[in-house]
Design brief:
Elements: H1 3-22, H2 24-28, H3 44-79, H4 84-111
Helix pairs in contact: 3-4
Amino acid sequence: MTKKNLSMLLFSSFLIYTVLLLFPDLLFAVASDVVETNTGKGQTGVGYMAAALAVGIACIASSYAVARIGSAGLGAMSEKPELSGRALIFLGLAEGIAIYGLIIAIMILNML
């Protein structure tokens, strides 16, 4: 594991733990009028956190992929201009990762 990957992993875990420590009400949603013990739908905070993590992690992964593919595609196009179509297709696939995360978040929020 490289230093860059390790630092990104440490930063993201620090960010998640900070949010959990600073805003525990968002995670557990323990208000008495919100909690429904019979149906089990009282933990809406976990659903909101899951939706936020789905979008956040997908966008971080998509930005990493776009940065890598974009720079490699630009280098390839400078040598062979006919490769521009392939580079754009790969960039579109990398952008799709963020859209997939958004779709998953919408599906999670519809279940709440």
